[in-house]
Amino acid sequence: MNAITLVIAAICILVIAYRFYGIFFTKKVLKINEDMPTPAHANNDGKDFVPTNKWVAFGHHFAAIAAAGPLVGPILAAQFGYLPGYIWLLVGAVIGGAVHDAVVLFASMTKGGKSLSEVMREELGPVAGFCTGLAMLFIITITMAGLSMVILGALADNPWGTFAVAATIPIAMLMGVINKFTGNLKLSTILGVGLLIAAVFFGPNIQGSWLGDLLTLDKATLSLILPIYAFFAAALPVWFLLAPRDYLSSFMKIGVFIALIIGVFIINPVIQFPAVIPDFLGGGGPIVAGPVWPFVSITIACGAISGFHAFVGSGTTPKMLDRWEDIRVVGFGAMLVECVVGVMALIAATVLHPGDYFAINSAPEKFATLGMSVVDLPVLSEAIGMDLEGRTGGAVTLAVGMASIFSGVEWFSHLTSYFYQFVIMFEAVFILTAIDAGTRTARYLIQDFLGNVYKPLKKTDWLPGAIGASALACLMWGYLLNSGDIASVWALFGVSNQLMAAIGLVCGVTFVLKIADKRIYALTCFIPLAYLYVTVNVAGFWMVKNVYWNSAAGGYNVLNGILSVIMLTLGLIIVVASCMKWRELWAHPRFTQKVQQV
Fold first, then answer.
1. Rounded to an integer, what distance in angstroms lies between the CA atom of residue 64 and that of residue 82?
2. Which of 79, 164, 353, 362 could serve as 366's disulfide partner, Cβ 3.0–4.6 Å?
3. Do 435 and 222 touch, CB atoms closer than 8 A?
């Protein structure tokens, strides 16, 4: 199987889905029209609610939803072979992810741009609203731990990579200061991108120096540094670090994936993985402990369907859309583009020989039991200049896979190590951007919850409250980061994230039953909801029984098991409340669509 075949097939399927199913869902199911102004127009305040060009809104939305998830999940799921992940990416994105993102965006806009928890409170009552808000707090906390785990394997004992990633912090701050006080975006962009490239090429010079020794960090040290960094990042003004880093990372994402797509079309590498790997389909794999179902749909969240998107789709994006029609481009379309990112990540992993892939993503003692041998990894390790075995988490696999693709170009062989470190920095910067924004979001959720007990906490600009909530958020996800490995933490992230997606689809079924001309249209949300809800519960209970509360398992962790049970219970309460509401709507349908102006 050639990689170009998978890429062309995926692009054709996604384009057809957007052209036909996207129009059907937005026009027929959601009955989108321009009779009412969007919240951006109705509540235009020049700050949060601002009518925005659809392509600018698309860029913002895509940058926010396509973080590390579509890169890491498909790589880890390659344990089952390339076919299960490939099928789930395409089917999940078209039937589930695009529908989820569009309907959550639509629901939030219908309620004047409110968050999903507020929408659920208004539609299903205070209990469902409270459970949704609490679930969102759990999920964003677990997400931070899952994403941070990816960085550990990439930067551990890698002073070059650590230097390049650390350099992005002062570079982003410099860009923020220039933008804030001069407004010269062109100057800050040229300077930022130039310094970014310089940091990668200067990296080899620090190896063997005092600075290189200082930046040679193990996983335990990195797992302490990341939460501390996140605390300061969440407390700093948005314009000083978060916004310029997000802007800078967008250039890296575009450049890296354009290069990867061009490389696949020019070199047309061969997929070395089999379609399926029978030994691990029933479970017991070195990367994903459980069976292919339900865990392919848990391991691959972003890229197929992701509850994290609900934070964005009911956060900043609904306050930006200029026209209701833009929901199809921004909500439905951005998810399909993210699916392409996931497919490219899957290809980068499966062009490696399976022995090389498992050597990278398994602990050395575990790999020794698999009966496999490395093939090209020693050559790649020599070209990159570091030992690649046992660097779990997915980030290293993506960088090695991309480097191996471009190794087909003769002159590129001299730049392999630079390209590898650039991709590592590319992934780490995206993850740090997500950590910055996610920790800030967790801080807001904590302040909102605890503010019901102590009202000053409700004020997000109250300094003691902001500092205390930021510290609590970092302590929570920092503990999870230090309490497991990538297999257990990523599974916890996957279960919580997909539960959030199920909650978004619950909201979707409720709205479709209220507004659609035909009740059967509710199946567009109910079918993916039914699959995802069953999948989440099966995976959650499997992990609790076989890993979290199994003292003989490597991922034994009582707290992770308690968190899983709490989240699944919250999901059950929400589903029961929604079923009661659906029964009422089925008996007394209301075909109205109003935009609440606030």
1. 27
2. 362
3. no
Closest residue by Cα to residue 397 from 335, 340, 344: 344
Q: At what angle do helices 523-543 and 98-110 cross, to 10 degrees?
A: 110
Q: Which residues neighbour 528 within 8 Å (Cβ) at sequence distance 6 or greater?
A: 95, 96, 99, 100, 305, 505
Q: With contact defined as beta carbons under 8 Å apart, do 128 and 444 qualify?
A: no
Query: CA 274, 275, 281 angle in degrees (round to 5)?
Result: 95
Please state the φ and ψ torsions of residue 307, each to the nearest 5 degrees. -70, -25
Q: If you average pLDDT over residues 66-85, what whole number do you get?
A: 88
> CA 77, 82, 84: angle at the middle one, nearest 5?
70
What is d(CA 100, CA 473) in angstroms, rounded to the nearest whole number? 27
Beta carbons within 10 angstroms of residue 456's beta carbon: 11
Residues 6+ apart with CB under 8 A from 84: 77, 276, 292, 296
Find out whether 355 and 373 touch, Cβ atoms under 8 Å.
yes
Which sign, positive or negative, has the C-alpha torsion 474, 475, 477, 481?
A: positive
Over residues 457-507, the pLDDT tens digits come to 877 668 888 888 889 989 988 888 887 666 667 788 889 889 999 999 999
| Cβ contacts of 334 within 8 Å, gap of 6 or more | 58, 61, 62, 65, 66, 101
Instruction: Enter the tokens of residue 328.
Output: 């199809």
Residue 321 main-chain phi, psi, to 5 deg: -65, 130
Q: Say whether 321 sits in a helix, a strand or coil.
A: strand
- Indicate the pLDDT class of residue 445, thresholds 50, 70 and 90: confident
- Could you give the CA distance from residue 272 to residue 347 in angstroms, rounded to a whole number? 10
Encoded amino acid at 309, one letter: H
pTM value is 0.85
- pLDDT bracket for residue 174 (50, 70, 90): very high
Q: Transcribe 50-70 into DSSP letters.
A: --B-HHHHHHHHHHHH-SSHH
Q: What single string gives the DSSP state of each residue in 80-97?
A: G-HHHHHHHHHHIIIIII
Given a contact cutoff of 8 angstroms between Cβ atoms, the answer to whether 153 and 391 are in contact is yes
Closest CA to 52 of 322, 270, 435: 322
Question: How many other C-beta atoms lie within 10 A of the C-beta of residue 265?
Answer: 12
Omega before 204 cis (within 30°)?
A: no
Cβ neighbours of residue 537 under 8 Å, at least 6 residues apart?
568, 571
In single-letter form, the type of residue at position 237 comes to: P
